[in-house]
## 1
Amino acid sequence: MTSAKALHAHRWTALPERGTPSSLRLIAWIAVHIGRRAARLLLYPITLYFVISARAARRVSYEYLKRVRGCPPHWWHVFRHFHCFAATILDRVYLLRGEFEHFDVTLHEKEILHRQIESGKGCILLGSHFGSFEVLRTLGVTQQDFPLKVLMDIAHNQNITRFLDALNHKIASTVIVPDRPDTLLRVKESLDAGFLVGMLGDRVSSGDKTTQCRFFGSPATFPAGPILIAAMMHCPVILFFGLYRGGKRYEIYFEHFADDVILNRDHRAEDIQHWMQRYAERLEHYARLAPYNWFNFYPFWD
């Protein structure tokens, strides 16, 4: 791994985890026993605290919002960005408990997903740290709308991961942990069994192969892993973006991305860059559509 790749991965893995187990349990107790309205009111002082105390994340939010807005943001734009993130975290409590009555979820182009499921063949469901993946994940598992596994790093933010997993052990059991000897075997077995394998393509982990893409007009480092896995498994790829629209509203968008990712041996790096650039362009499209939904609070641009 090059020093540049190590630095990029270190940018987010080295960030301290902010939520303590006791604070998470308190919010969950309020959410469950007092109600979503009261819990959402608590998000305002909590968000203000993080805007004041999380200096590095605040700077990154400012830089990102400046790019997506095309002009310098004000402090309340950064507050709204943090609040949007906090709202989706709170909603995970209800989603993982199967309490869908709190939400109004709209699925766009869902026939793309249904056709893939009806074919009986698995595919990669490629998303990002954008809006809420948990809406789609809980719909698939608790409502049994579609068979889903998730390739997900659980080493970072362990407090919140353990806390959320405890709310729904069935959903926790769908996780495939990366960087283990049997990871690719488990992915292949899941795809062969007709599962949709969800993974996120906008964050580099330690040891990842990477590629450079243009993102909001500047070079940024993206992981090559999703494309390498898709090419290795010879399976279709479907993009998804779960937008939080405020209040109780979520919108999930599906897009056909590839029937089969083929990498030519003679220009493999260029092919990887081509596919990931396409992904980066779709991510940028949705970030412009819902700018407060992108939750990569670490220095992203090179």
## 2
Amino acid sequence: MTIPKHGGNIYEYPKGILDFSSNINPLGYPKILEEKISKNFSDLLVYPDIDYKDLKNSVGSYLKVDPAYVFLGNGSVEILDMVISNFKRMVLVEPCFSEYRLRAKVHKLEVLSLPLGEDFKIPMAALKKSIREGDLVLLTNPNNPTGRTLSSDELLDLYLDIVEKNAYLLLDEAFFEFADLDYDTLDLFRPLGFANIGIIRAATKFFGLPGIRLGYGVFDLDMIRLLKEAELPWSINSFANIAGGCIFDEEFISKSRAFIFKERERFYGLLKEVKNLKPYKSNSNYFLLEFKGKSEEEIFSRLLEKNILVRRCSNYNFLEGTFIRIAIKTKKDNNKFLQAIKEIMEE
């Protein structure tokens, strides 16, 4: 059976299936967006501003960076693709998001793949040893599918090595707002003008808007110039343009983070109690689960019978066929998953 490359592939299953395969904010999206789209629906009758000045200002204000350092895309994957196209060799630490390798293949990059270390930690010594001049080092922070995050010391240590070797670090931080960290990556590199580093985030996950397709990245002016040379005109639709002007709401952000931090701890504690199941501690809005005595296909099929969809993980590099990834959803839905997986594991 072919395993989808991404979660959220609900269209071949019965309507109303409980989707734990897609890691979207369980609180949904900022509701003000409905009002803004309704009031500004006539924006669809004209082309968006080809330079997206207002949107860049909104994103820059939210990220606390000069809009000149902001680049926008039709989702974060478009920006990833455009950055990758400027390099000849990419260094990955896997398992990680499948699109990195797929985009590298499209642009004919050589790919060096390193496995994550014990308990899915970044093998920092091996990673630094592998980096050559001109390389693109692409990391996810938090990692997908493990949910692990880098410490600021790890990040800065790696960055200094990359600068010394004249390589480039690209951080995919699509899940960054879900993480409980003592630093903001943007604060670390703002004083350096983002030299040798790009940081990508998106409205997709935390702001609950996968259908809007709005990604944004922060880069130095040299990379911005390269990306502008390759960008397509009007790649961002008017609804995404409207969204960028209203979704970065402090109350919504605080409420979402507080919920995820509390529910993640509760859910993790209960998952640890399930027989023959190992949940890996996560700093995001999902968990990687490893099973003993049952395959991912068996778990997947049995959960489908209970109207629950999960993400199988054997098509991630270096993961065997005993892993699934699940989103953190509402307390009610998480309890449904717990009840279902307990029944399956105790059979």
